[in-house]
Amino acid sequence: MHFFQELKEGLAISFRALRSNVMRSILTMLGIVIGILSVTLMAMAIEGINRAFDKSAAAFGTEVMYIQKFPWVSNDDWATIRNRRNLEVHYAARIERQATFVDAVAPAVSTVRRLTYGDNSVESAFITGTTHQYIMASGGTLADGRFLSAEESAGGRAVCAIGASVVENLFTHDDPIGKSIRVAGYPYTVIGVFDKQGGLFGQFTTDNRVFIPLESFQTHFGGRRDVTIQVHVTNKNQMEDAKLELEGIMRQIRNLAPGKANDFNVNQQEILTETFGPISATIAVIGLFITGLSLFVGGIGIMNIMFVSVSERTKEIGIRKAIGAKRRTIMMQFLSEASALCLIGGLVGLILAIPLSMIINQFLPTAIPISVVIISIVISLVVGVVSGFLPAYRAAKMDPVEALRYE
Amino acid sequence: MQKKDYPMNVIELKNIVKTYDMGGVEEVHALRDVSVSIGKNEYVAIMGPSGSGKSTLMNVIGCLDTPTSGLYLFNGVNVSEMDDNELAKIRNKEIGFVFQTFNLLPRSDALHNVELPLIYAGVSASERKIRAQEVLNHVQLGDRIHHKPNELSGGQRQRVAVARALVTRPSIILADEPTGNLDSKTGEEIMILFEELHRQGNTIIVVTHEPDIAEHAIRVIRLRDGLVEQDELVSKRRTYTAALAS
């Protein structure tokens, strides 16, 4: 018999055997169902977190650099860096003059204030004062309207661009463009609305922000604050060069002697992904290992039952051999039984994963990539073949004379 | 059920020895030196008390076991040194077993039991269903092909077993105490069937300890202590055609 014929006959015999003892088949399969279910959910959650992270990191813009007092991720002692001087607004002009790798420079200062519109209010929104170039040196995009113009920025006009969450909270029915909102009591006209950024770094996105001209900010909220200078790198292949140049210019501005460490940081999105990458990988390995253990236990259950099954059917194996079944035929019969158990269990586990992932989705972003589905099916088959191998081998090697004598 | 004609004997056993090693110390000499020839369309009974080696001889003839030494030519082919797969093939195509305890698959119906050897022979699904049906008709069970063994009487089960033995058109039918689990009336029915099969040209070998059953054969080989004690034609043969005729 050819391989496929053997497989077909083996499967036919398997299904007959599984059907004959439904309760036992179900209980055995349960181990695989739970194993595949947990591995699949874990893989989905990991994939979901990675995707959420990537989407969140995108909020920071791929070609944007943030020149700030502190680093986003620090391995150093907090004590060595907490005494750093603030950055100042006038750095921006110097950087704009001297930097060759950037095409937009915007200083930004922020505070937290209350917003109101009619009966609606937002208690703690971020108010950011900046210049017209900000829109080019940021990860945010406008959904409607426009950002501050050069004249509005220079003249400190009472106009603002607001984020998506601000719109959701203040404007239930109206179109925001053209309306006047109160920022800490001061009136500002809305000229632009940002797209929703969402993601895990909610605080740092445009969603809960209001952008006003820097001059206006300084008038109402004071000027002695820490400044972030955001720049846009013209060519994304020159990020490294841009960073070195900016550090050089900053060192000049801050009068740092050669050999002295930087007392500022040039932060970028890559820092986040670089930091997150290893963490994510570690979580993935540990998570999959642990859930993989449950699958391993399921496989052991299969092996155990297959040994019992082989032993129970000793006489039957003897009969089949007497009638002419070759060793590989017997082997195939029991291997396909183990594989069928695992495959069905795996499919049930996958099917159960779908509604369960929707529940998890309430807490963590989950995604159902096709690769996970395919891999789960392949793993089920592998578990079946591996678990079934030893029992099947034992069956195949049985001496027909002794097997026939078995009672 | 006819097969191709061979000029040689179907079975040639020359100086067959079979020894079992029981845990290293003891050795059991099941067959000491057995030489037997069985020709086509013979009807042979192999008799002997327990311990005589008749079961072992049956296993060697049926290619279920290989001799420790000696030569076994089956249809002229040396099978004494064949490997497991080759022996399986011979069992499948050339040997039809009939057991005392029927040995049918309990969860399968009669048709499936009978087509099993054809499945192992690689015959297509449609063809083997036809052949299985045919041979079940031949043993008068054509109307019960979908019955499972537990839905059949002892005699019917044995007839299914005989049908299974016949379905590959084997060179020999090898029966081990075929009536041992049947009452005398049903046992007779089976022996009538064997007589019929013999008349149709099959070679029949029956292993038994009951003289009544052995007397249906034409030739009797008696074993004792692993050796052939006697090998002669049956003097007063029991047949049913003769009984019917008289």
Structure explained in plain terms:
The complex is a heterodimer of chains A (407) and B (246). Chain A is α+β, with helices and mostly antiparallel strands. Chain A has helices spanning 3-20, 22-58, 78-81, 91-98, 150-155, 164-170, 214-221, 239-253, 269-312, 314-323, 327-360, 370-397, 400-405; strands spanning 64-68, 102-117, 120-130, 142-145, 159-162, 180-183, 186-194, 209-213, 228-233, 265-268. Chain A has a 6-stranded mixed β-barrel with strand order 2-3-8-5-7-6. In chain A, helix 1 (3-20) packs across helix 11, helix 2 (22-58) runs antiparallel to helix 9 and helix 2 runs antiparallel to helix 12 (370-397). In chain A, 42% of the residues are buried. Chain B has 246 residues and is of the alpha/beta class. Chain B has helices spanning 54-61, 84-94, 110-120, 125-138, 154-166, 184-199, 211-214, 240-245, and strands at 11-22, 26-38, 43-47, 69-74, 77-78, 95-98, 172-176, 203-208, 219-224, 227-233. In chain B, a hairpin with a 2-residue loop joins strand 4 (69-74) and strand 5 (77-78). The mean pLDDT of chain B is 90. The A-B interface holds A 1-2, 5, 9, 16-17, 20, 315-316, 318-329, 400-401, 404 and B 59, 62, 64-65, 84-85, 88-89, 91-93, 97, 99, 103-105, 107-108, 116-117, 119-122, 164, 168.
